[in-house]
Fold this sequence. Notes:
The protein is of the alpha/beta class. 39% of the residues lie in helices and 21% in strands. It has helices at 3-15, 18-25, 29-43, 59-84, 99-106, 111-116, 168-174, 222-231, 240-244, 275-291, and strands at 48-51, 54-57, 91-97, 120-126, 140-143, 152-166, 189-190, 217-218, 236-239, 250-252, 260-268. The relative contact order is 0.14.
Amino acid sequence: MDWDKLKTFHAVAQAGSFTLAAKRLNLSQSALSRQIKKLEDNLSLSLFTRHARGLVLTQEGEQLYSTAEEVYKKIERTFQELLDTKTKPFGKLKITTTHAFGSYWLAQNVKEFVETYPDIELDLRLSDQTLDLSKGEADIAIRFQTPTQADLIARKLITVHHHIYASPIYLQEHGVPETIEDLRHHTLIGFGSGRAQPIKEIDWLFEVGRPHFKANIEISSLFGILGAIQSGIGIASIPDYLATSTPELVRILGGVPSPSLKSYFVYPSEMKRSKRVAVFKDYIVKKLLDAANSF
């Protein structure tokens, strides 16, 4: 494979046109077009469908682009690791975790890190889907389940607890449940089954009753559930880190056994020498240990 032609192909595929790719590579459109033509001739297939609005990858082009994108991400990561060994930590650091934890805790606790390491550019990629670290979708993940991929390094963080909460308004209007069975007479809020859940056992509350309870309202977002509790709609189970950010909520039925989830700091094994990863890991471990009593 001619790496110059692969670089050209990658740039053209990203840009979707010879004009934009030529500007990015500082080459003429004719030179780019000739390189793509030679690459297609070498492979004996078409990589692009050409039309008036630009270029569209063929099925074979999509396959080659997917591999080229993965290669370039690995090269970029390796380049950054090499620089890390010679310089102070700098560059972009992509961190993924769930929407709720990222918004209500992580984003509010990175101020000191940003001030200490101004040359590191934090990119918080909040998602309730599991991003693939091995494909470069993120550099670090804070997860609430044990990683299973063999090429990932996981450092256990803290245990996150879940409890049952209601608003003072709701309890004034409907009374405080004294036993778990009392919940049958209250409005219960759940995440909903059959959905991609951000954390395991998110709807544990509905399995403690005999027979099982049913949710009166299902909201496929921890943000939404928290908002519903605050508004006085009903009762729900949420992680304690959400409740501590909303101190007016009241914890109820504290004696009911509730799930506890271990959290993990996860990163690819090829980044084990990265200074950016190391300094952020040290920082976040300390921050979480300081906050552990409220989680």
